Amino acid sequence: METSLFSKVVILLCMTFFLGFKFIHSAITYDNKGIIINGQRKILISGSIHYPRSTPDMWEDLITKAKVGGLDVIDTYVFWNVHEPSPGKYNFEERYDIVKFIKTVQRVGLYVNLRIGPYVCAEWNFGGFPVWLKYVPGISFRTNNEPFKQAMQGFTQKIVQMMKSERLFASQGGPIILSQIENEYGSEVKEFGAAGEAYINWAAKMAVGLNTGVPWLMCKEDDAPDPMINTCNGFYCDYFKPNKPNKPLMWTEAWSGWFTEFGGPIHDRPVEDLAFAVARFVQSGGSYVNYYMYHGGTNFGRTAGGPFITTSYDYDAPIDEYGLIRQPKYGHLQQLHQAIKLCEKALVSSNPTVTKLGSYQQAHVFSPEKGTCAAFLYNYHFTSSKTVTFNNQQYDLPAWSVSILPDCKNVVFNTAKVGVQTSHMQMVPSSSQLLSWETYDEDLSSAEDRPTMTANGLLEQVNVTRDGSDYLWYMTSVVASQSDLNGQTPELLVQSSGHAVHVFINGQLSGSAYGTRENRRFTFKGPVKLRTGVNRIALLSVAVGLPNVGPRFETWNTGILGPVVLQGLGSGKKDLTWQKWSYQVGLKGETMNLASPSGASAVEWVRASLASSSTQPLTWYKAYFDAPGGVEPLAIDMQSMGKGEIWINGHSVGRYWTMYANGNCGPCNYMGTYRPTKCQHGCGSPTQRWYHVPRAWLKPQQNLMVIFEELGGDASKISLVKRSVARVCADAYEHHPTTVNWSLDSQVGTQRLHVAKAHLQCEAGQTISSVQFASFGTPSGTCGSFVKGTCHAQDSHAIVEKVSHVKVV
Fold first, then answer.
1. How many C-alpha atoms does 48 have within 13 Å on its Cβ side?
2. Which residue in 123, 182, 184, 645 is the catalytic one?
């Protein structure tokens, strides 16, 4: 009989970390076996944490959790557009204080891979390029173009000099051991041909000439010139080989999940598959793995690109958007990292000997010298487990898994056997109430009466707004005669190049239409109510983040470019495309700075029944609230609203949009090749319902929340919630000893044991509640719905109560 013990226990464990690390002047080199730090080859485990996607008060906690999770390196892009919002004017304050971020990494005791780019992709607005760059005369992005190269070199030099002045490169005693120039350029080379090859050679020479004293990387660039190290990005990289035999095998983006777009489902990547991919890479000689993302965070403000990328950039990362540990992903990877580190000496000193153990099974053995041996036993069959013989012993290999044997005898880790807890998160209403909502009408007439400019024909949106606002009004008028309308229902057709449009006829909303990330071009087609005489047509074009990827994306159009046609009139159709149009950039409320505390207090708001105004488009809402007690992360529940933007005390939380998810949601099995379409959830629900509110943005009382609503919603149902752990469950396998013994904070937990110990956690601020299920035997089910099996030890509850000091209910 296979035996197991299920229990739910809660352990309150408060620990304060005082972590420090003294860096010395380090010589960083490389060979085909890895990065060499002061003469020692390393297996380096890295994780991406992007400083603008969290707040400075979160940084140390995130980095500390990364270190406890087994990471050696923190990887971050450098985001040009937030640092140089206008030419020669720089911003390195608050969330953009990259020096503070890197010094925090140094203080915690980790290294840094600084991916300067300065093109970053990253689902970030305009791929990280400032929009003003598009208007430099004669420019063409990411090719052998002198205006672009001059601007790119200027910013790269600015960042490198800043790092040097703060002595942050390893050659100066700092934590930066690697840097990256450009980003995923391989596909662009095919587009630009000889000009692309000339550009990438120039970029490499420029970077090396900056004399940082650390190696430079080029990811997804097979032709990276020496001494650049070309690296792999993807879900799997065990197939990858560097372009020269003296370069190490490096994986700069091991995708931990996938990004989310409004209207799409949430993508998960099972940790069993992610661990399998990493183990495969290491057994193939890989010496550097970076998880993209380790903490995804939040696209605050208007930083999300795409277009249509959500404000949440959670990415199913080991640390979730709010900074909480995601289990079992975090703990299972932590065990993987410790197992790999146990093999490090053998891995960096020898090449693997590959032995066939079966049709789909292999042994990768590293044995550089007598007495040192590490083995990876590999089963790449999609569905079938296999018992194999290795070193005269038998080993059970689950399907699609790797077992790690640091001594070539004992299995310390298998990628498919998850022996850590699974945390189920919940959003709990807070005690803080949003009371006394007040409204302010955006007042369409103000845009019609005071246009920014007029022109014959339709103008491209970004050329007019310079991305200073998501919004651009296109306004014109049309005269309808009695014969035009007699018994007719006119129809308006508006063709747009993205991303959304709201159609107003004589001040009334007639309808809306949207594109998608995959198909930015769309057409609004709907009946319109005209009157005899002059009719005012106002089209509000809305950007939802500028493109961040694709050849020559700086040339892509946004906005209403036509045709715009009225059809179904008695006199026939009228093409309005080339008549006189007036334009107004942005909203009246943006000009008045209504989102700021000073701007909000400078106008008269109306306290009215929300029930009567709940469907009113183009409405600003304002309310005050006190900060909820406790330390749990906070979010705003926006399910009752339509589309718009949220501000807290003048800080932009980001865009919200209650767009319902369409996808292929269903059961998810970790076995077999992973793609984003494989494991999805949330179909039929809003793609994003909750929006992260950093506690650092709050004061104890009278916090100002301002919302701009485009379509109409019910603000009375908006609420502030806390994110916390609801329950945790875990498995521990007989003859599968854990390689870790870790605890961070405190956590409610359920544990399934054989003979191995399991350590349970709950987040800070939570306390022990109860044990809901305990069974030593053959229970079945999943976390929260366990059922006793035919074999069950009757004293399971008593034993769990004794060891946990928690009442079983």
1. 30
2. 184
